[in-house]
Amino acid sequence: MTRRNFLFAAAGLGAFGLGLTGWRTRAGAQTDGVVFEVVKTDAEWQAQLGEDRYQVLRHEATERAGSSPLNDEKRKGVFHCAGCDLPVYSSEAKYESGTGWPSFWESLPNAIGARQDNSLFMTRTECHCRRCGGHFGHIFDDGPPPTGMRHCLNGLALSFKPAGAA
Predict the structure, then answer these.
(1) What confidence score (pLDDT) does residue 121 get?
(2) Which of 81, 127, 129, 152 is catalytic?
(3) Residue boundaries of the structural domains of the chain
(4) pTM for this structure?
(5) What is the pLDDT of residues 67-90, one digit of tens each?
(6) CATH second-level architecture of 3-162?
(7) β-strands 94-95, 103-104 pairing
(8) 3-class DSSP state of 144
(9) Would you give the DSSP letter of residue 31?
(10) Who has greater pLDDT, 119 or 57?
(11) How far, in Å, are 33, 108, 120, 150, 161 from residue 139 at the CA level?
């Protein structure tokens, strides 16, 4: 079994068994000594985001594989953080990874932060919005050229703005 297949199976089982109820507390973002530019109370985030986005962005939940309409987004444009509207990924870096989550081979400059994530009995690299700390997903080293990286993201963590849209 390849690493990608193992991770895909583990995430699928977690999503199947837990849905959006199996989140971890996002305490790490608050206690790692990182101070984000956009800070809101838990109640403010919940009111702004709605329940599903709130659980993904603020409590590191994982949406069910294949559930995001952003998987099929093919237009040119920019993906933004759904929490603070920071531009984070270009459509030019999006590709079909076959995992069921929107995937990119790189982020926009100065858009994301990363930290070690030791959940699910493995070490992964978690990526989040550098401005508000919202959880996007994870970064793996099994992506396509030119970077060889796969930013495997929750669609609920993103919003899409087509090129030319105001």
Answers:
(1) 79
(2) 152
(3) 3-162
(4) 0.81
(5) 999 999 999 999 999 999 999 999
(6) Beta Complex (2.170)
(7) antiparallel
(8) coil
(9) H
(10) 57
(11) 22, 14, 15, 6, 23
